[in-house]
Structure to design on (220 residues):
């Protein structure tokens, strides 16, 4: 089970497959979890200060980390330094992790084409659209599957992997942050459990595959 395929352990691939099958086979799981945040009339945490902070923090954090990396890269090249190891490989890695999984796979391919209605839009939770299971294309015209904010939050994993020291700590912090953002999206009625879980797996797997391709020796 510890064997890796494309730099991702076998058990992680299997976990993604099993959870995906479970969400398709037992779609009521999504409704059950969403109902935990629904009071019968609305999603009370939608628009709350904590939900707003988590929702609006993702984009600024990514911009800050990305711009900081570019600035350090330029400085390193001008001064012939190696601050934080931000070189051309690191910049290429950052650009790829921020575009392939969050932008191309989640937002462009899935969110723009799947049509799944958000929890708050479904009849189950006061809306007027039909609930549809994850991974099943829908004609509801929604943007629930999968979660763009979750994907963006977990894409910070790429920056954590570039750390030279305390890498496990930074990875853990990204996991905690991504989880909190995911919970906030569910609590606001913006996404189902399967939406955020799918985005997490897509970003996690893509990030480690790209890391292997860019940093072949280090990834071992």
């Amino acid at each position: 089970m510890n064997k890796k395929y494309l730099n991702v352990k076998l058990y992680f691939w299997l976990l993604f497959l099993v959870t995906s099958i479970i969400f398709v086979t037992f779609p009521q799981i999504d409704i059950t979890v969403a109902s935990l945040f629904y009071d019968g009339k609305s999603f009370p945490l939608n628009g709350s200060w904590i939900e707003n902070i988590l929702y609006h923090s993702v984009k600024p954090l990514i911009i800050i980390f990305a711009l900081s990396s570019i600035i350090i890269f330029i400085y390193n090249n001008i001064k012939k330094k190696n601050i934080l190891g931000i070189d051309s490989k690191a910049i290429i890695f950052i650009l790829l992790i921020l575009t392939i999984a969050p932008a191309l796979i989640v937002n462009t391919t899935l969110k723009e084409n799947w049509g799944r209605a958000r929890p708050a839009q479904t009849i189950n939770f006061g809306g007027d659209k039909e609930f549809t299971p994850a991974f099943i294309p829908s004609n509801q015209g929604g943007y629930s599957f999968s979660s763009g904010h979750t994907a963006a939050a977990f894409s910070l994993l790429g920056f954590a992997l570039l750390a030279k020291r305390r890498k496990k700590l930074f990875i853990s912090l990204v996991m905690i942050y991504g989880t909190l953002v995911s919970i906030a999206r569910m609590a606001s009625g913006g996404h189902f459990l399967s939406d955020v879980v799918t985005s997490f797996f897509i970003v996690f797997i893509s990030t480690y595959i790209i890391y292997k391709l860019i940093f072949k020796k280090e990834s071992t």
Remarks:
- The chain has a mean pLDDT of 94.
- Strands lie at 4-5, 8-9.
- Residues 6-214 form one domain.
- Residues 31 and 192 are 8 Å apart (CA to CA).
